[in-house]
């Protein structure tokens, strides 16, 4: 990693902070980067946010002071030219990226554009676990080598959990004390408001059995197969239902699994919903069944809404969020029996909502924003 430059750039809050995310989709990275942009702007700093098309999700939550730059060209050279011209023209104090494709673009501009702008990377997942799931040893070796070279060129790294920080240190050789950990800004003022939005779903009517909720893309990482199998065990012992918010390639396979286990009528693969919090606030239990994570945003948001939780003890994030199981059970990844038992016990003896909310005090928008500013050397 580059050594710390002169503090001139870092101590000049009049210069913009640029969040560079032209590869903008609809996932958690995009939502968290939007919250970071908002939080930093609300601290009084000028923020430029380079994003994809104007109709990209989450952007309507930004204050008018955040200056949006829409870059829809997917060609890497076009993105590099755009950022090079932007840095020369605006001289930002910081450029922050959050995806490997954008990291490479930003660090190429760093090499070609002299100045005191500093470039920070924000890894948000456990790379080692993700690579292991692919099973290709040669590709894992290549990805590790490429990531090591990339991170050595950055001016700073800010990551979402200590588990991800340890993973990045092991992969890249960076000293752990050179990697800052700042919790995701999950808890916004709108969270409670969104949770109170109307919900027209018969399962949430008064007097119905408790609904267990899962949220996430229907893909290998989230391991909804284990969740459905554990739910089928629990369903044999007590009335309950399972609703999963998300879409993906595994939808039909999961639907067939629920039918094979005899719980198809009690499992709703509901698809994507732009406001999952109205479901979450009414759930009897939220379950994270993932094989790996970076931080597990929905787990933190569940606690903020006072909803009981159960999670796999996957790398990285759940153990930190739940403080070694203090705020919810942690079970081994892929262990159907243990997950079913933990779900049953938590439904029977849930922690009080006020106790659950204690776990995520540092996930508030303003706390996270100040953490980023401190990592950048821009705290006023």
TrEMBL record:
Domain Glycosyltransferase subfamily 4-like N-terminal: 27-184
Alphabetic keyword roster: Transferase
InterPro entries per UniProt: Glyco_trans_1 (IPR001296), Glyco_trans_4-like_N (IPR028098)
Superkingdom, taxonomy of origin: Bacteria
Pfam families recorded: Glyco_transf_4, Glycos_transf_1
Molecular function via GO: glycosyltransferase activity
GO terms for biological process, alphabetical: carbohydrate derivative metabolic process
Glycosyl transferase family domain segment(s): 206-361
Family matches, as SUPFAM superfamilies: UDP-Glycosyltransferase/glycogen phosphorylase
Record's protein name: Glycosyltransferase
Lineage, opening ranks: Bacteria, Pseudomonadati, Pseudomonadota, Gammaproteobacteria, Chromatiales
């Amino acid at each position: 990693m580059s050594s710390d430059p002169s503090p001139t750039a870092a101590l000049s809050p009049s210069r913009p902070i640029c969040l560079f995310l032209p590869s903008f989709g609809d996932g958690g990275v995009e939502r968290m980067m939007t919250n970071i942009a908002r939080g930093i702007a609300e601290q009084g700093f000028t923020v430029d946010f380079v994003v994809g098309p104007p109709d990209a999700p989450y952007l309507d939550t930004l204050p008018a002071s955040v200056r949006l730059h829409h870059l829809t060209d997917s060609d890497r050279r076009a993105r590099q030219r755009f950022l090079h011209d932007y840095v020369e023209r605006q001289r930002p104090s910081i450029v922050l990226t959050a995806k490997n494709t954008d990291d490479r673009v930003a660090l190429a501009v760093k090499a070609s554009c002299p100045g005191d702008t500093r470039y920070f990377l924000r890894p948000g997942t456990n790379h080692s676990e993700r690579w292991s799931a692919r099973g290709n040893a040669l590709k894992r070796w290549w990805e590790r080598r490429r990531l090591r070279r990339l991170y050595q060129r950055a001016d700073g790294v800010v990551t979402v959990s200590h588990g991800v920080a340890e993973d990045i240190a092991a992969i890249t050789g960076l000293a752990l004390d050179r990697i800052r950990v700042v919790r995701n800004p999950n808890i916004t003022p709108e969270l409670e408001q969104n949770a109170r939005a109307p919900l027209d779903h018969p399962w949430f009517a008064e007097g119905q059995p408790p609904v267990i909720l899962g949220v996430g893309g229907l893909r290998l990482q989230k391991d909804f197969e284990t969740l459905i199998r554990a739910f089928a065990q629990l369903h044999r012992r007590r009335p309950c239902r399972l609703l999963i918010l998300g879409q993906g390639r595994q939808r039909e396979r999961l639907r067939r699994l629920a039918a094979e286990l005899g719980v198809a009528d009690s499992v709703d693969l509901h698809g994507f919903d732009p406001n999952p919090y109205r479901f979450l606030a009414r759930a009897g239990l939220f379950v994270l069944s993932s094989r790996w994570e970076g931080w597990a945003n929905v787990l933190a948001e569940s606690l903020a809404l006072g909803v009981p939780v159960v999670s796999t003890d996957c790398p990285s994030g759940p153990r930190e969020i739940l403080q070694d199981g203090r705020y919810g059970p942690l079970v081994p990844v892929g262990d159907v029996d243990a997950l079913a038992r933990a779900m049953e016990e938590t439904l029977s003896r849930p922690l009080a909502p006020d106790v659950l909310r204690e776990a995520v005090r540092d996930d508030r928008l303003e706390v996270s924003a100040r953490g980023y500013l401190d990592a950048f050397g821009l705290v006023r």
